[in-house]
Amino acid sequence: MTSRYQRPTGTLDILPAERPYWRYLEHTVHEVMHLYGYEQIDVPVFEHTELYVRGVGEGTDIVEKEMYTFQDKGNDSLTLRPEFTAGIARAYVEHHLYKQPQPVKLYAIGPVFRYERPQAGRYRQHTQVSVEAFGEEDPALDFEVLHLAYHLFRQLGFQHLYFQLNSTGCPACRPRYVEALKAYYLEHYDEIDADCKRRLQRNPLRVLDCKADQCQPVIMAAPKILDYLCDDCRTHFHTLRAYLDAAGLSYVLNPRLVRGLDYYTKTVFEIWAEGIGAQAAICGGGRYDGLVAELGGPSVPGIGFGAGWERIILAMKAQGITPPPLPPLHVLVAHMSSTKATAVQLSAQLRQAGIATWLAFGDRSLKSQMREANRLGVAYTIIVGEGEVARGAVTVRDMRTGQQTEVPLTDVVTWLRAALSTSPEPAS
Prior knowledge:
The chain contains 15 helices and 16 strands. By secondary structure, it is of the alpha+beta class. The protein has two domains: about 250 residues, Bira Bifunctional Protein, Domain 2 (BirA Bifunctional Protein, domain 2); about 90 residues, Anticodon-binding domain (Rossmann fold, 3-Layer(aba) Sandwich). An eight-stranded mixed sheet has the order 1-5-6-11-10-9-7-8, with helices on both faces. It is elongated. The two termini are about 30 Å apart. About 35% of the residues are buried.
């Protein structure tokens, strides 16, 4: 039967069979963030539109094409968050976190919304983990953020990881590069597409991020920003590379890597994984030393990265990474129609005691209920029979061995706790 209603384009139903990936990913994120001293923050799913226009950049594709923006009943313009960093930076300013000991190290998990063409691992509503560190310009913090990202993906089981790395300079040196880039592109104006002609006027660095085939020869021969860095940016980048080299982390210098957001300065990076198809990037980020000041706060540096969970899970499958299964149920309570009330109360008692329990519903035969127990993979089936109830007991069947034991009703919880603590988990 075809459903009358279907999910909107670009959204995803996460069915129970997929939940082990999500649970494993969330557990691993929390575990790794704790190792590096990052604390979780939650920010609203919508913000005032101006926050993203100023923070992300008016000339970016996100602001121009992809934001879900609406007027609320108070005639305020609000936008569903297209990314986390601007909202977290706003919270950092609003709650005066810059007065705390620095750096302030934060992470967030939740949905983001972008109206873009759906493709593998990319949806109009997708889930991101966003990692942000404010208040320190030391390249050692750049290294920590990159190493954290690398550690996270290695912990998830990824192999053959390496960084794509670049520096986008700073307000002191970037203008000279932008002028050189514009002069070069004007010489090749007839060779680029309409989007790049528009970007050249509004956001010149974005021409380097173009994916159109006709623009690739022009991009490949464009001036490289690393040749235009000031002494401060050059030293910062050199020091970061030295840290990466000392740690044995592989990277490729990519002068085309600028990322898609206006707030980036100095370090920008992506992590790529081999063997997962053409879209090899599984996370990306960089330094944004001017963002906090742009949002009305003090001049405080920052660095971070974001990664989409759907994309990560797709890449996990491509690399053959299987998450641990969800914990199985411990017990099924089977019953006769005449003992159902006792079975209902016993199920509640077992769950109250922390024993994962499945209650058989309806008035099916005991044979049918046992087949259900096998399907669920429970360790034990409790049979609430008429004779047992009359004796104040139940029969507990070990589903691995077939051995059955009569246990007094008053002792079932204690008996099961002892049995479950000494026996291996059943296959799920």
